[in-house]
Predict the 3D structure of the following.
Amino acid sequence: MNRFFESYEEASAYCEKQSTKGYESDVLSRYRFEKFSTFQNSNGNLLTSPSTTILLYVLAVYLKGNNNKLPNFIDFGGACGESVLLLSSIFGGGVYKKSWVIESPRMVEESSKWNSANGIMFSSSLETVISQNQIDIFFSSGTIQSLPSPLAPLASVASFVTRNNFSAKSKVVAQRSTLSMNGTGAHIENYGNPAMYYPNTSIVKSELINIFSSNGYNVILDTSGTSSGVYGNECYSGDLVFMKT
């Protein structure tokens, strides 16, 4: 059961007591990479990812408007690099030189230990990547809501895709899941299936849109639905895609 809190800090402190380190957990990071490696070795289909449809839509829109030039691409919260691997299977190895996966410091450290991550550029510093590169597409699926300030990274990015929980008023929750709910592929039984807790903040949709509108972007796709997700009946999930016109 998820618990609501007055602040992100309170939710984070509660999560720390329930499960060690949350997204910085050694076990969680190792589990995600091993699970994905097993998925790859079993010829798993990357097209089954819930965010794949939106990702490919964004790529198609960008390529159409830019003479089929590959974009510089950030996957914020990109886990084990699944999106980069999918795109490389379509567009070839050039994708690796133009794509970055932004993840937690522990996930970045773990990535160096797995062949599945070879060639993928992992970083825990969005600011560094943006300052050194012109980014064309910023992609994030259900990740910014895990940050202390979910809207903070968005002022400096170029294009944005999200599967997040929206609400009229921001809500902070300690989200409970199990280990098996994390990562791509089949659960690895010898890890057990302990409960995992993460602080999550629902996003005020109008505030997110205003950030982009004030910088010359328009919403070109909005799939917002009525699913309440982890925050109760006052919230709903959806995807937003922005493009500068």
In short: Residues 26-41 form the longest helix (16 residues).
